[in-house]
């Protein structure tokens, strides 16, 4: 959107070819799976694409809920490069550079294409929002001997809809926060908090650990998104705010 200013600065002197090559693999169809464990050291992002008439509401939704929706970049529908994340990923095309997309209509997913270039055209006046993802700091956890269970098991992180309310904005009201879960021994929690709190642009530190029922989760064996993972004896679930929260908001808004 015109006038959007990123809430952080890019680190100078970083070689970014690995991230560009990975986006190219997604664009070509060479990679089509979950991105956890890929491109360590780079920020990963979730993508929300909306008609321009809902963009201001969603921008405010992100500002009001920064833990769940840490905003990294916003596209400009008036630009010739209307689908480029010009600040965080110059040269990108957000219509093709993700492994998979969910197309929502009237509160339901109607398609899961590998590209949306036929849906997102200059005439459509759509706006793309990039939101930081917790996959960004999982490489650091691995370096510290805190390998996330879903990385260990080669699957996606489990994600759950909670009873935690989110601040409303315009049409985006009435939904609740989605969280990701990683199991750890209780004595690892302090280190997890210290490590992940360094990354507010990727959800920061955990919001809850221990009893899932306290945040409205009835069964850890049945995540609402992603895959279930093993929870071993002596471990507790640790929960972080998740960038799938906008999906819950979009579903509740039932946009056409």
- Rounded to the nearest angstrom, the distance between the terminal CA atoms is 21 Å
The proportion of residues forming helix, as a percent range, comes to 10-25%
Spatial strand arrangement across the major sheet: 6-7-9-8
What percentage of the residues does DSSP assign to strands (E)? 15-25%
- Main sheet attributes: strand count, strand direction, barrel closure: 4 strands, antiparallel
Look at the helices and sheets and give the structural class.
Answer: alpha+beta
> Using only CA atoms, what is the Rg?
18 Å
Number of helices: 6
Mean pLDDT: 94
Instruction: Give the beta-strand count.
Output: 9
The H/E string reads HEHEEEEHHEEHEEH
Question: Can you tell me the overall shape?
Answer: globular
- Which stretches are poorly predicted, pLDDT < 50 over at least 5 residues? none
What does this structure look like?
With 256 residues, the chain is an alpha+beta fold. 20% of the residues lie in helices and 19% in strands. It contains six helices and nine strands. It has helices at 17-28, 55-64, 138-143, 149-153, 189-196, 245-253, and strands at residues 45-51, 71-74, 103-105, 108-111, 126-132, 159-165, 176-184, 208-209, 236-241. A four-stranded antiparallel beta sheet has the order 6-7-9-8, with helices on one face. The chain has a three-stranded antiparallel beta sheet with strand order 1-5-2, covered by helices on one side. A hairpin with a 2-residue loop joins strand 3 (103-105) and strand 4. The longest helix is centred in the first third of the chain and has 12 residues, at 17-28. It is globular. The mean pLDDT is 94.
């Amino acid at each position: 959107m015109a006038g959007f200013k990123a809430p952080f600065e890019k680190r100078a002197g970083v070689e970014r070819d690995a991230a560009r090559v990975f986006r190219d693999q997604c664009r070509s169809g060479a990679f089509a799976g979950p991105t956890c464990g890929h491109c360590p050291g780079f920020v990963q992002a979730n993508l929300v694409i909306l008609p321009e008439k809902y963009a201001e509401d969603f921008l405010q939704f992100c500002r009001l809920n920064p833990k769940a929706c840490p905003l990294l970049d916003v596209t400009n529908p008036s630009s010739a490069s209307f689908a480029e994340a010009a600040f965080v990923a110059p040269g990108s095309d957000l219509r093709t550079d993700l492994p998979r997309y969910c197309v929502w209509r009237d509160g339901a997913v109607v398609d899961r294409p590998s590209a949306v270039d036929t849906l997102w055209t200059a005439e459509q006046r759509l706006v793309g929002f990039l939101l930081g993802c917790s996959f960004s700091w999982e490489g650091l956890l691995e370096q510290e001997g805190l390998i996330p269970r879903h990385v260990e098991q080669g699957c996606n992180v489990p994600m759950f809809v909670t009873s935690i309310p989110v601040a409303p904005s315009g049409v985006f009201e009435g939904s609740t926060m989605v969280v990701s879960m990683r199991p750890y021994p209780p004595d690892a929690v302090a280190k997890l908090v210290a490590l992940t709190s360094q990354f507010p642009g990727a959800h920061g530190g955990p919001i809850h650990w221990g009893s899932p029922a306290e945040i409205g989760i009835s069964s850890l064996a049945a995540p609402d998104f992603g895959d279930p993972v093993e929870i071993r004896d002596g471990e507790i679930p640790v929960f972080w705010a998740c960038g799938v929260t906008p999906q819950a908001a979009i579903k509740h808004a039932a946009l056409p």
